Amino acid sequence: MSSARKEDEYYTYEDYYSWDDGLRWELIYGKAYAMSPAASRRHQEISGELFSQLHEFLRGHSCKVYHAPFDVRLNADTDDDTVVQPDIVIVCDPSKLNDRGCAGVPDMVVEILSPSSIRMDKHIKFEAYKKAGVLEYWIVDPESNLLDAYILNNGDYIAQSYSDSDDNVPVHVLEGCSINLVDVFGV
Asked: What is the pLDDT of residues 95-130, one digit of tens each?
C-alpha cells in the first residue's frame, strides 16, 4: 500500500495491524502517519538511560515500562483509530496489556524529539495524549538538553520545564520516582 493512499484515507487498528509493507506507521484519529527512519545515536542513548532509570525503579512494582516499538491504542474501547508508538510508555493497569501492546490509555508517555518529529510530538500527539487522558507526558529535546513535563489537571496539561542543570525530575505518576537528568543528558 503506498503512503499517498494511506495519507488520504481513514483507518482503524484492524487496518493498521494488517499492513505488511515493512514500514512503521502511527494512526491519529484514523489518519496514517509514516514514522521516520531509525533514530539517531543520541536519541537512542537518551531513550536507553530514561528507560533504564524507570525500569530499575519499577522493579517489583505493578507498573510496567516499555520502549518503542510498542503499540499503544489510545481509544481501543471506542473508535480504535489511534495507534502510537511512543519512545517510552508506562502502564500501571495490567488489564490494558496484551501481546500486541497497550489497549487503552497509558499512565505516562515519553517522546524524544528528532528534527522530523517536532510537529508530530509537540502538536498532533500532544493533543491526542491530552484528549485521551494520558496523565503525564514528557517531551525530551536532545538538541537543547531540555525536558518538558506535562501533568494532566482537569483535562488540560500543566507544563514544567527542566534542563540538564536540574538534577532530578519527579515522575508524578510514580510516587517516589525521580529521573536524574544529568545522567540522561550526559550519556
From this structure: 999 999 999 999 999 999 999 999 999 999 999 999
Contact 94, 62 (CB under 8 A): yes
Residues 6+ apart with CB under 8 A from 92: 62, 63, 64, 107, 173
For 40-67, give one letter per residue: b (16+ CB within 10 A) or e.
Answer: eeebebbbebbbebbeebbeeeebbbbb
pLDDT digits (tens, 9 = 90+) for 136-173: 999 999 999 999 999 999 999 999 999 988 779 999 99
Spatial separation of the C-alpha atoms in residues 17 and 14, rounded to whole Å: 5
Q: If you compute the radius of gyration of the chain from its CA atoms, what whole number of angstroms results?
A: 16
